[in-house]
Amino acid sequence: MSKQYETVIGLEVHVELATRTKIFCGCSTAFGAEPNTQTCPVCTGMPGSLPVLNKQVLEYAIAVGLATNCDITRYAKFDRKNYFYPDNPQNYQISQLYLPICRNGGVEIETAQGGVKTVGIHEIHMEEDAGKLIHDEWEDCSLVDYNRSGVPLIEIVSEPDMRSAEEVIAYLEKLRLVIQYLGASDCKLQEGSMRADVNLSVREVGAKEFGTRTEMKNLNSFKAITRAIEGERERQIDLIESGESVVQETRRWDDGKGESYAMRSKEDAQDYRYFPDPDLTPISVSEEMLAGILAKQPEFRTEKMKRYKEEFDIPDYDIDIITGEKPLADLFEATVALGGQPKKVSNWLMGETLRLMKERETDASDLCFSPENLAKLIGLTERKEINSSVAKEVFEVMFEQDIDPETYVEEKGLKTVNDEGALKKIVEEVIAANPQSVEDYRNGKEKAIGFLVGQTMKAMKGKADPGTVNQMLKELL
Amino acid sequence: MKITDMTAVQLSAAIKVGKATAVEAAEAVLSQIEREDKKYNCYVTVDREGALAQAKSVQEQIEAGTLTGPLAGVPVALKDNLCTEGLLTTCSSKILHNFVPTYTAAAVKNLKKAGAVILGKTNMDEFAMGSTTETSAYGPTKNPRNPEHVPGGSSGGSAAAVAAGECIYAIGSDTGGSIRQPASYCGVVGMKPTYGTVSRYGLIAYGSSLDQIGPLTKDVSDCATVLEVLASHDEKDSTSVARDDTDFTSALTEDVAGLRIGIPNDYLGEGLDGEVKTAVLQAAEALEKKGAIVERFDLSLVDYAIPAYYTIAAAEASSNLERFDGIKYGYRAKEYEGLHNMYKKSRSEGFGEEVKRRIMLGSFVLSSGYYDAYYLKALKVKALIKKAFDEAFAKYDIILGPVAPTTAPKLGESLTDPIQMYLGDIYTIAVNLAGLPGISVPCGQDGKGLPIGLQMIGDCFQEKKLIRAAYTYELCEKKF
To answer: Which among A25, A49, A98 is the top mutation candidate for probing chain B, defined by the most B β-carbons within 10 Å of its own β-carbon?
Structure first.
């Protein structure tokens, strides 16, 4: 490969909004219900039914637009996108084409070189999700579940401003954090509440015109996105190098095989016959509404990081990790507010919490223990009512089912024995039972005392403070 | 007086004082249907058992004093594009030959709450596309005034049922004249209210931005009474308007003194039948004698209304009718290969010619490359027509003219030339484009004995002026 190529990438990101009800009807959006139990005439497209916009969807869309520096369209409309498919009960999707709610925004990302660059946002529009088709191999028929039909989505369309997989990931991370901080979505790629389609083209370095682009779908993780970008870049360069041309088409990424295949080309692109939906009145965004949403905007990550640095004496590394997941930051702040010492709270989050999350392969948004219980656990250790290994044991139970650590410690009898007489009796027994170690210690083998502490803890079933035991042993020896 | 000859107001009064019961009323109308409907084909579905059961329950509530309104116990016929839970709703189309809705339209719920007894569903042009009720998949309805003639459309079954005494009053829908024109052809009263007055929730859409539900009745008092019950603000319909002036019966007064009436010259020009013209001008004179100020003026833009209307209505219809695909309900072709072929065959076999013509027209005007030239331009024309009406209503309270250029044509005459049929809508469709209320009241008959309709159009939310003028005119007629 003699020539140098540049990759040009733009993203279309779909985010499922965390509203309680659907975008155009009152049906629940809860995940995992029995098929077709969360449906009504509206979201199953029954004749005569009419859509009514869920105001929360509009507010979330505007909030995301404001947080990504977009202009908010003060007179917006919904349009119908017409296409036939069984997961789409009306055979048109209500979306926005002509007057999307947000336009002309952008977010800053850090580049690999340590600089900062802006990725432009062309527009953000609101739309409804489709139902789910399930093919029954046994009966050889297809079934449709309309529970997801009408779940609200926003589509964030970027400008073709990204030049590498790293920039794409940085952009997606940025969007994810902003949206998570707003509470507008949990943005989980694996579960599909955030989905990214990658538009990619290559051109010779220095060229002014863009190359022909392809659109890649079915990217379910950051890893898949990275691999798909690398793969598509190479595929396009190979085509160009061998004198062929790139075809404008939609491709589907197969992450298992590590390759993509063409779904449909531009030639068979459908004419969606977009037109304004006459069933929905135009949206006018008033000054008051905008002000109200602005007033409710949360503290975003950059501001939060700055404040943590000023308020709490914890390392930059901790701040970076904790603010990197909204649920962690929420837990941290709430626990500190309940009296937990910041560094201790941070230690629990950075240590045991992250360890268990990794071990159980769960997300920060799945964390179930309350800040109250974490504060209590910290209190127990600070008052030396339990020692650190007992605390870890208790935490693991808390991590699973958010138990009250005080009650749990009481019920299981895990409290450290602080009765000096009782402890002294055990220590004396351990000394008597281990003459060799006592001998070693007296002969200057400092390490031997560790064994004696261990034996004492064992005899106490862990319910002693190792520091106190150590102290007592030294005195008795 | 025979029950089937009574108006809704008369019948409910009779039931109230115990001269008749709701069950007797339902039975009387049902036997009229049994006797007459073979001749006229007003109904697609007659719900005999359901009607009698409702009548029994309504009668109990009337006796208990819980139902006291002027429609309590009165039998009504519904156009077959209004969803009724558990009762077949076909839009007179083969594609919905077996469709039983899971819910009831908001307007129908309002009627039921008022104690209406639902007799069944009336025939119509398929999906309300047509002006004669001949495009129905279940055979044409015939005009009770002369069965060789059409009843008009698309609410032809509803208008004919009222004229034939096969119901006491009926409900229709009006997208381009579909209530007013059949009312005119059948010699009954029909009203299309201001867009947004009656909830469209549960009305199977044809042209969403133009569709409005309204009454077809024997006289103006019934018209005001029924509209008062139909009208309500509905949160399930985003285009529904919250109004606090829906006490339409309060406008039933004989008083047009000082009322400014404008007759557009455009509505009296070429194409208008001489007998219709004479009848309409005589009606205007009658109102003038009662104290109204009548003037001629130029409305302009009338010629553009038809192309604009057929562009917008067809565009919306092409999208609205996409849901009828054979997947979830309705007709599915017996043999097909794969999904695409199933769609194609089910829709080709399930829809009639006129519906397919409008779907194709609508798909064309929305397709990329033609959208600006047709659909957007039609929207601009629509806005200009609204402006022309605004200017007219600065000068006049009411615009008066004919409903249709002629009286009811003979069966089979209209469908051969769709363009000619579309042109017949010239006086009614501008009202839908501008969202205005319009009423059709009988104003005599032609030499063949076919009824002629007088149309009065009001500014948005001015139904009361129309009711007042129509009521006054009706009283003059009765005195002749």
So the answer is: A49
On whether any CB of chain B is under 8 Å from the CB of A91, the answer is: yes
Query: Could you write out the three-class secondary structure of B17-65?
Result: CCCCCHHHHHHHHHHHHHHHHHHHCCEEEECHHHHHHHHHHHHHHHHHC
Q: List chain A residues with CB under 8 Å of B372.
A: none
The rounded distance, in Å, linking the Cα atoms of B219 and B453 is 13
Domains identified in chain A and CATH numbers: 5-288 (no CATH), 299-412 (no CATH), 420-476 (1.10.10.410)
Scan for tokens 């059709």, then name that residue.
B440
Q: How far is A106 from chain B (nearest CA, A)?
A: 30
Mean pLDDT, residues B129-147: 97
Q: Please state whether beta strands B117-122 and B75-79 pair in parallel, antiparallel, or not at all (unpaired).
A: parallel
Who contacts A446 (Cβ-Cβ below 8 Å, separation ≥6)? none
Counting residues of chain A whose pLDDT is more than 90, the rounded percentage is 74
The domains found in chain B, sorted by start residue, are 1-480 (3.90.1300.10)
> Which residues lie below 8 Å from residue A141, measured CB to CB, with a gap of 6+?
A135
Q: Kindly state the average pLDDT of the residues B432-440.
A: 98
Residue B154 bears catalytic tag: yes
Residue of chain A whose alpha carbon sits nearest to that of B372: A275
Residue B180: CB partners within 8 Å, gap ≥ 6?
A: B174, B190, B191, B192, B403, B428, B431, B438, B439, B440, B453, B455
A275 near B CB under 8 A: yes
Inter-CA distances, A393 with A199, A361, A407, A462, B262, Å: 48, 19, 14, 11, 89
Judge whether B68 and B192 are in contact, CB under 8 Å. Answer: no
Residue B223: its pLDDT value, please?
98
What is the C-alpha to C-alpha distance for residues B219 and B271, in angstroms, rounded to an integer?
29
- Residue B266 per-residue DSSP state: G
Helix (H, G, I), strand (E, B) or coil at B461: coil
Picking from A21, A27, A80, A91 by the largest number of B CB atoms within 10 A of its own CB, the best residue to mutate is A91
Q: What distance, in Å, lies between the first and last C-alpha atoms of chain A?
A: 76
Count of CB atoms situated within 10 Å of the CB of A189: 18
- Say if residues A160 and A119 touch (Cβ distance below 8 Å): no
Question: Which tokens hold the place of B447?
Answer: 């030499």
- Is the pLDDT at A462 greater than 90, yes or no? no
What pLDDT does residue A266 have?
67
Among candidates A48, A271, A280 on the partner chain, residue whose Cβ is nearest the Cβ of B105: A48
Output the CA–CA distances (angstroms, integers) from residue A156 to A10, A55, B221, in the order listed.
11, 19, 56
And the tokens for A144? 């449709």
- B231 CB neighbour count, 10 Å cutoff: 26
Shortest Cα distance, chain B CAs vs residue A244, angstroms: 30
pLDDT (tens digit per residue) in A128-181: 999 999 988 888 889 999 999 999 999 999 999 999 999 999 999 999 999 999
pLDDT confidence band for B479 (50 / 70 / 90): low
Neighbouring CB atoms inside 10 A of A65's CB total 25
Query: Contact B22/B117 with Cβ under 8 angstroms?
Result: yes
- Is B12 considered catalytic here? no
Q: pLDDT: is A453 or A337 the higher one?
A: A337
Q: Which residue in B102, B237, B319 is closest to A46 by CB distance?
A: B102
Chain B, nearest residue to A87 by Cα: B327
Q: Which of B178, B184, B232, B346 is catalytic?
A: B178
Two tokens, residue B312: 């917008």
Full-model pTM: 0.91
Distance from CA of B432 to the nearest CA of A (A): 14
Measured between beta carbons, the chain A residues lying within 8 angstroms of B339 are: 86
Q: Measure the CA angle with vertex B120, ends B451 and B115; round to 5°.
A: 95
- Number of Cα atoms under 13 Å in the Cβ half of residue B399: 29
